[in-house]
Every structure is written in structure tokens, then in C-alpha cells.
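tool_call: predict_structure(chain=1)
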Amino acid sequence: MDGKKNTGFKLSVMTLAIMNITAVVSLRGLPAEAVYGPASAFYYLFAAIVFLIPTALVAAELAAMFSDKQGGVFRWVGEAMGPRTGFLAIWLQWIESTIWYPTVLTFGAVSIAFIGMNTSHDMLLASNKIFTLVMVLVIYWAATFIALKGIDWVGKIAKIGGLVGTIIPAGLLILLGIIYIASGGHNNMDMSQGFFPDLSNFDNLVLASSIFLFYAGMEMMGIHVMDVNNPKKNYPKAILIGSLITVLIFVLGTFSLGFIIPAKDINLTQSLLIGFDNYFQYLRMSWASPIIAVALMFGVLAGVLTWVSGPSKGIFAVGKAGYLPPFFQKTNKLGIQRNILLIQGGIVTLLSLLFVVMPSVQSFYQILSQLTVLLYLIMYLLMFASAIVLRYKMKDTERPFRIGKGNGLMWLVAGLGFCGSLLAFILSFIPPGQIATGSHMVWFSVLIIGCIVVVIIPYIIYASRKPSWQDPDAAAHFAPFHWETPAKSTTATAQPATQTSTAAPSPKPDKPGKPMSNR
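tool_result:
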């Protein structure tokens, strides 16, 4: 459906920038990198150069280029590689975020566990699988209920939650680290490791590859490009502001956590809360620990809310143009994608039950994180390749935000992002040596079979589509692909593209108002 049709609410530059930060920054990831000491800065900066910055720049160009057209990453990849591959891209963005929810919500559950005043009791509660499962589901379904209220609710709560639960706690953690070191506190970070890591240790590369997911999400805001005033100017501005703040939060926040907790004692799900506890105890402010735990829980809610509304809105808009069965196109009275959100919730609930079969909460957390990395990186590979292809297929199209005057800088930026994503994709299959992940057989089976199944499903859906799937009203708002425009019929309804090749103009549709032939 058209982004301007369901609400008159518009996102400001700062609101969108904060939504970007909230969607990308999750303080839960800091413990995983704090174990590297000073070398963590190398990993963050390396990933920023080869992934975050290319993602932000490429997404800015593509979103501004198609600011008057719907579809997000579906549009970007579909214009370059055809609608089948575009559908794969939007599907991966949606399903990846769905699989990711239990991992980020695990951190939300831990935050709730640390609301108490007894640290030992809080740590025990945080390790309880039943407690974690219940809290994961409560937070997720609360986010879903809010998302069903519309983009104005999502924007306001994501902005407040992002400030209170992510940006302010991140700033506080950094400030606490500075005060701790300046006042003579013992530095628990092994500074002898140096800035450059030991790249001969393969385990270092494997676990560090997960840092790419820390930076994932900048392109997701392309779904909201039509919800911004003057998107050609303001969307790229919000993306760049969000990118700079994101890097600073990750680098300085990780150092602050490493100062207060020895690497050998770091736990992926609990160490952030323990780090705050230790700082507050050092400053004799233990009363503040429950407050920061509540704030971090709201940060998780805001982050999940941003993701619940984003990718689901994208695949919903694409689905109404004829790519998903009518059942997935049902909305509530506000025009929100009700059935997709409910199905998404069912998948999250099922995945959360995996807690009972994994050897520990931490191993469950890691294996799901790795699967989301793999699926998301496939989408990024498609996005970076599409940006280069479009420089030649749509070379005369206006680009309000353009990477370089010629194509050379685009090749450099998108090529760097593609190579970085490919490296991270390969390394993500290897179990990290620093974390107990249970049976390697289970590890490889979940990752390999998971990737194959998830990639095949959208191709099956695409091949099964029928003319009746198309919502005529939605299709009228869903702009045709660039190769369809010269061949458009005199009817007002835009036809969803279904040809397998984009090298030549599309054949005429079999019947007006129906999807084009596969041939």
C-alpha cells in the first residue's frame, strides 16, 4: 500500500536518524567484542569501512533514486536483476529479522532479570530458560501490538525508546568508563594485545565476523523513505548521521565494558548488565542498577519495534502487488499488515521454544545470531551488486544522492561492501572457538539447512503466484519497473513484473490487470 495513503504522519531527519541508530545499535553485542581488548577497535573500524559505510552510501543512493517508488530492497534489486531476485532480497530481509528477534529479546529478558537488587539472584534468574522464554514472548508481542497501531506510534515510541534505552545508556557507559579509569580504577582490559589482532588465529576471524550483523540495518530504513518530508534530501542525511553515531557508540562502549570486566569472565548475554553493576558499585551507586536495566529493556523494545514494522511493511507492499497470496495481504482498520505480523509472531514463538533443545541460552543465542548473519549477508551481496548494475541499466536516471560523478567510486564502495560481505559470509559457517555451541553437527546442520530452506521458499512462492493474488488498488500505486514503462498499456493499472530476464523489454501481459507470463 502507498506509504502516504495510510497516514499523514511524517518522520523528521532526527527521528529517522534515531530510528536508524535504534535499529542498528544494540548494546547487547558489546560483550562479544570486548574479549578482544584494544583489537576490538580494529574490528569495528574494519567492519565500518568495508560494510557500514558502503551500506549507508549505497542505500542512500538507491533510496533517493527510487524515493517515489515502493518496495525498498525489492525495488533496488528487482530493477537490476529482475523481480524474482528482488523478491528473494525482500524475503531475506524479512525472514532474517524474524529469526533474529529471539536473540535480541534474550538480552531484553536478561535486562528484566537484573531489575532486582541482588546481583547473584539476578544472574541466576537470567540463566533460567523458562523465565527467558516467557520474557522474550512478552516483549515481542508487546512490540507487535504497538506496530499494529501504525507508523506514528512506531516512530514516537522508537524515538523515545531509542534515546532512553540505547543512546543514553551508551553515553552513560562511556562516561562511567572514563570516570573509572581517570579515578584510578583497575583496567581489566589486556592492553598488551594492541590495536592489530592476531589474524593468524582463525578463531579471532570467525567470532569477529559476527560484527557485521552489529552494523546491519541501515538499508532497512529505505522502507520508510516515503514517510519522510523531502526524502531525496533528508533520507541520505539521516543515514549519514546515524552511521557516525553508531561507530562511536560501538568503539567507546566496548572499551568501557572491557575496562570493568576481565575477558575471561565475559558472558554474551549478561556481561553488559554486570558491567553497569560493577561501575555503580565502584561509585557506590548500586541503586542505579535497576534503573539502567529497565532503560535497556525499553531499548530492546524500541529496536524490536523498529524491525517489526520495517521489513514486514516492505514485504507486505510487495505482496499486494501480486507476489503473496491474499491471506498475507489482510490488514487491520488502520491499513497495517495484520496477518504478516501475526505469522511473524508465530515463527518467533516457535523459534523461542528452541531454548529447550540447545545446551545453554548462550549457545542458542550464538547459533541463531550466526544464521541471521548468513541470511542477511546474502541480501547485502544482492544489494551491492545491484547498485553497480543499475549504474549501467539506468544510467540516465536522476540520482539526487550519488556516489561520485562517474562509476569508479561506486565500483570501489559497492565492491568493497560486496567483498566484505562475502568474507563474513564464509567465516560465519565456522563455529567460534571462544564460545560453547554444543554439537558441531547441530551447528552446521542448522546453518546449512537453514540457509538452503530459507532461500528456496521465496522461489517456490514466486513460481506459484496467480493473477488473483494482485490487489488492483495496490498495484495502481506500485510503480512498474523501468523496463516496463515503455511497454505499459493504456490502462491505469501497473502490472507486476514476473519475467526472468531484465535484459530486454517485457512481453505484453497475457490479459490486462494480470501478472505477465514467465516466458
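agent: Residues 289-323 form the longest helix (35 residues). Proceeding to next step.
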